């Protein structure tokens, strides 16, 4: 069992003394307080909170998704239709958004770190040995293999030049060390700075190498100086495979002092108007040079801003170490547009097919994306993928769990995304689509329904790339939209945003009336996986969808009141009161809410996500949906069963657990652990005063997804649970 006491024990993951000698540290630490900011003087020690791995270790290949024989048999028809769909898309030169049949080139392994660069501009990762790998330059495509030519190199000279060493700084790819007494530290700085929408969009990263006891360094000058220029030096390297000796003998050679640094900068500049950073640097050939210049002159300021953001958490002794070390990184793709008309840019990318793709729309209705410019937030359009396995932009059911980070760090981008979905609610696309789960057909986008995603090949125009089920019949997307809109409205206090999206909120709520078939105010599920758990069937009233619906009604009523829409405020309030009584009467069993109101074998299962609506309610400052004792009782039940009965709490919260304490094996998703759901459950516990339970739950998913294997999973979304 996991001992709760360890979660409040703060220990340094990587003591500085392990990396840099005590003598050097004694010289460096006093000096830093007196040096001007323009000088970069670093002791070379890694940060106290860091993931540690020996350079000669080997990355473990991690287990991947698998299904049981019975699950495979049940999904055989779906698999055949999906295989046919993948082949059909390939015949048209398009990649299917979901393709389990093609071997992915980005295999999960415990070898990669935080991606380089800002967001919305592509990314490159580095392995823990220093190699550049996992190239996400073209949205939706990934190349995992390192390019070994793209490395930093070092030349070492000792004893008056009698001993010379040279090496590529990609440890682990050679035997031994070129100079065992030499220690080099590399700081990698990317401009990911909250609320800085310009610098955080730049495709650049600065590398600061701190050297100890390096005797000879290459010498070069800037233009106009009487030295070989950096450009000339690297041209010689390119032609001859090594630096000219003159670069190492020009002028006097002095041993470097402890903490002396050398800087380099990487910039991958794609001069295409689609990318937001071209708004600031243009598309000329010199843009990359200007960007590198700015990065080298501003990186220390970037570091200071990052430290201001992170230190309140890293230095908070009340928080467990796992919370401080938790990586806020994303290894999918993201794309950020400039503030020009988004359609003109995508027309430039996709060519003349744009006219064809809008041919199925109702001619009497305006297409909001064809007439809209940049929104009031002036941050352009933003797209991101949840991972490289699912090539669908801004999947909204997942954004429900992930969007808190955007709201906190880049609220203007979050509001821009919500505006896109608000426009989408009022939009209809009548082109026919075949749904793969049952082989039926329907229209691509139904007016009033929140789309599952903003598309794949033609985002904003060809929405709902997901075509397993007809998501216009899902019961969770519309409530999730209302809840996210109200949370963002309450957090930002932006009345203009609230008024602009209000018509979509009303449409989303009213659309759900069709699913209240008995008129009791509460929506019912339809006996198929009609929610984000798209392999987990629900019958009748659902704990998950029903709780989201109650929370959405209360949020809509409160938002209406704040906007002066009294009629809607009263309407949604009365519906909420009526639905709440039915929900509790049908699902509450004395200690938690049943999975659903049906009579199936898993109807009494304990779902980890049963209080998702209450999580948003508490996060948005709204009154609780249920009595406090019921909320705490359900959360405690989830903790004792879904968390602690799976590997002693070391994996997170399994989605489904039977009342007998066994993992619910109804389907693959009931026995999975979802990262976002576990953190939502942990947050819900903390919001309701269950501190030990919340941090223990978060510690489990942290251990499973990060602590043991590093940032190993391309999509750390799902784990398989095995009960004790």
Automatic annotation (TrEMBL):
GO-annotated molecular function: beta-glucosidase activity
- The Glycosyl-hydrolase family 116 N-terminal domain extends over 113-175, 177-215
A Pfam family name for this chain? DUF608
SUPFAM superfamilies tied to this protein: Six-hairpin glycosidases
Question: What's the superkingdom here?
Answer: Eukaryota
- Supply the InterPro entries for this chain: 6-hairpin_glycosidase_sf, 6hp_glycosidase-like_sf, GH116_catalytic, GH116_N, Non-lysos_glucosylceramidase
Q: Which residues form the Glycosyl-hydrolase family 116 catalytic region domain?
A: 380-716
Task: Give the span(s) annotated as Disordered.
Answer: 96-116
From its record, what is one biological process in GO terms? carbohydrate metabolic process
Name the record gives this protein: Non-lysosomal glucosylceramidase
Origin species, per record, is Eleusine coracana subsp. coracana
Q: What is the lineage of its organism?
A: Eukaryota, Viridiplantae, Streptophyta, Embryophyta, Tracheophyta
């Amino acid at each position: 069992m996991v001992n709760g006491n360890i979660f409040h024990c703060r220990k340094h993951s990587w003591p500085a003394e392990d990396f840099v000698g005590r003598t050097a540290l004694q010289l460096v630490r006093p000096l830093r307080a007196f040096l001007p900011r323009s000088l970069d003087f670093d002791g070379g020690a890694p940060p106290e909170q860091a993931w540690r791995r020996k350079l000669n270790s080997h990355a473990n290949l991690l287990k991947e998704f698998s299904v049981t024989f019975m699950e495979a048999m049940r999904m055989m028809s779906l698999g055949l239709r999906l295989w046919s769909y993948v082949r059909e898309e390939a015949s048209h030169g398009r990649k299917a958004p979901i393709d389990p049949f093609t071997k992915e080139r980005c295999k999960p392994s415990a070898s990669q770190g935080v991606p380089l660069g800002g967001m919305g501009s592509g990314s490159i990762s580095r392995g823990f040995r220093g190699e550049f790998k996992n190239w996400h330059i073209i949205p939706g495509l990934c190349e995992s293999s390192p390019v070994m030519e793209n490395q930093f190199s070092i030349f070492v000279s000792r004893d008056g030049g009698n001993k010379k060493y040279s090496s590529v700084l990609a440890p682990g790819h050679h035997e031994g060390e070129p100079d065992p007494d030499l220690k080099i530290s590399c700081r990698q700085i990317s401009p990911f700075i909250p609320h800085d929408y310009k610098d955080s969009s730049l495709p650049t990263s600065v590398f600061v190498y701190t050297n100890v006891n390096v005797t000879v360094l290459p010498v070069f000058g800037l233009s106009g100086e009487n030295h070989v220029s950096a450009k000339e030096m690297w041209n010689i390297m390119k032609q001859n495979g090594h630096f000219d000796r003159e670069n190492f003998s020009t002028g006097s050679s002095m041993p470097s002092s402890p903490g002396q640094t050398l800087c380099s900068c990487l910039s991958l500049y794609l001069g295409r108007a689609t990318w937001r950073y071209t708004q600031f640097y243009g598309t000329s050939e010199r843009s990359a040079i200007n960007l590198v210049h700015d990065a080298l002159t501003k990186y220390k300021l970037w570091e200071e801003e990052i430290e201001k953001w992170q230190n309140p958490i890293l230095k908070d002794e009340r928080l467990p170490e796992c919370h401080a070390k938790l990586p806020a990184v994303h290894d999918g793709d993201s794309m950020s547009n400039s503030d020009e008309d988004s359609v003109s840019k995508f027309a430039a990318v996709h060519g003349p097919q744009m006219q064809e793709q809008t041919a199925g729309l109702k001619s009497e209705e305006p297409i909001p994306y064809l007439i809209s410019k940049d929104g009031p937030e002036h941050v352009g359009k933003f797209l991101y993928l949840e991972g490289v396995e699912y090539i669908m932009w801004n999947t909204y059911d997942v954004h429900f769990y992930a969007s808190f980070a955007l709201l906190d760090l880049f609220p203007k981008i979050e509001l821009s995304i919500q505006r896109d979905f608000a426009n989408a609610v009022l939009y209809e696309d009548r082109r026919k689509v075949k749904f793969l789960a049952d082989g039926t057909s329907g229209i691509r986008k139904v007016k009033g329904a929140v789309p599952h995603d903003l598309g794949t090949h033609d985002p904003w125009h060809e929405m709902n790339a997901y075509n397993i089920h007809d998501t216009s019949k899902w019961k969770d997307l519309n409530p999730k939209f209302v809840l996210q809109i109200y949370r963002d409205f309450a957090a930002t206090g932006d009345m203009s945003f609230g008024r602009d999206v209000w018509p979509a909120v009303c449409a989303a709520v009213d659309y759900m009336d069709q699913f209240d078939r008995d008129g009791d105010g509460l929506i019912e599920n339809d006996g198929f996986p009609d929610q984000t758990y798209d392999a987990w069937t629900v019958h009748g009233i659902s704990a998950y969808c029903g709780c989201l619906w109650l929370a959405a009604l209360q949020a809509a009523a409160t938002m209406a009141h704040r906007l002066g829409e009294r009629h809607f405020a009263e309407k949604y309030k009365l519906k909420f009161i009526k639905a709440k009584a039915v929900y509790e009467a049908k699902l509450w069993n004395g200690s938690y809410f049943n999975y659903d109101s049906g009579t199936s074998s898993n109807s009494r299962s304990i779902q980890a996500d049963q209080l998702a609506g209450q999580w948003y309610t508490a996060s948005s400052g709204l009154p609780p949906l249920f009595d406090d004792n019921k909320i705490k009782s359900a959360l405690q039940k989830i903790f004792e069963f879904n968390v602690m009965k799976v590997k002693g709490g070391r994996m997170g919260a399994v989605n489904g657990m039977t009342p007998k304490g066994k993992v619910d094996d109804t389907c693959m998703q009931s026995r999975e652990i979802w990262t976002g759901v576990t953190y939502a459950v942990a947050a819900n516990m903390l919001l309701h005063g269950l501190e030990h339970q919340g941090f223990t739950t978060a510690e489990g998913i942290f251990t499973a997804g990060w602590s043991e294997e590093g940032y190993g999973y391309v999509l750390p979304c799902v784990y398989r649970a095995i009960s004790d």
